[in-house]
Amino acid sequence: MSGGAEARINLSKASILLLETSQHALETLDQICKGFGVREIHRCLTIAEAETVMRTRDVHLVLIDPAVEADAGHGFIRDLRKSKVEQQARIPIVALCGHPTLEEVGCCRDCGANFVVAKPITPGALLQRLQWVAKDQRDFVFTQAYVGPDRRFKFEGPPPATAGRREGDKLLPLGDALEPNLSQTDIDMLIKPQKVAL
């Protein structure tokens, strides 16, 4: 992939697993992926089919509707992330949600999905997300409670004058104040309701 605003990705050699809730949704997603130049597409309507593909094929990307089989898709994502095969544990996963409530987005994030895309899916929006996933530089986190890409998108180190929670975090010194601190009276005046003359 080249840099810049017009960055492109070549998906012709990618192997993609599609796991959808209906045959119609699967066919639509299949056509979109073929339009991107993908030649190897594994279409699945059940978790069992998807698990068989993951055991027998080399897959580079998973596009999944977590609502498959009464929301069993979340468990499938978790199982992939906890796979003993590191390549499968780190595979990019894009969750395709029909009703992306805040709770659903949080659930997908906590399962380890790289990104959530709202349905109905347009080719342009999906391609934009795939480009984003391809250039994502977030660290991968392995803990007992969570396995997946770092949930923080922008990490600039721990807050000043605090020790970080990561091994590589550095303690940054807190600079001297540039102005004197406000007095309690000044603070009270800032938050005190004021009468407005009309």
Describe this structure in words.
The protein is 35% helix and 15% strand. Helix 6 links the parallel strand 4 and strand 5. With 198 residues, it is of the alpha/beta class. The strands form two sheets. A five-stranded parallel beta sheet has the order 2-1-3-4-5, sandwiched between helices. A two-stranded antiparallel sheet has the order 6-7. The protein has a domain at 15-149: Rossmann fold (3-Layer(aba) Sandwich). The protein starts with 14 loop residues before the first strand and ends in a 7-residue tail after the last helix. Mean pLDDT is 85; it is low at 1-6. It has eight helices and seven strands. The radius of gyration is 23 Å and the shape is elongated.
Strand line-up of the largest beta sheet? 2-1-3-4-5
Strand coverage percent: 5-15%
Q: What is the helix fraction of residues, given as a range?
A: 25-40%
Shape: elongated
User: What is the average of the pLDDT values?
Assistant: 85
**Total strand segments:** 7
Tally the helices: what do you get?
A: 8
* Head-to-tail CA distance between termini: 61 Å
Which structural class matches the secondary elements?
A: alpha/beta
What's the story with the biggest beta sheet? 5 strands, parallel
Compact summary:
The chain is of the alpha/beta class. Helix content is 35%, strand content 15%.
Features:
single chain; 198 residues; alpha/beta; Rossmann fold; 5-stranded parallel sheet; two-stranded antiparallel sheet; 8 helices; 35% helix; elongated; disordered N terminus
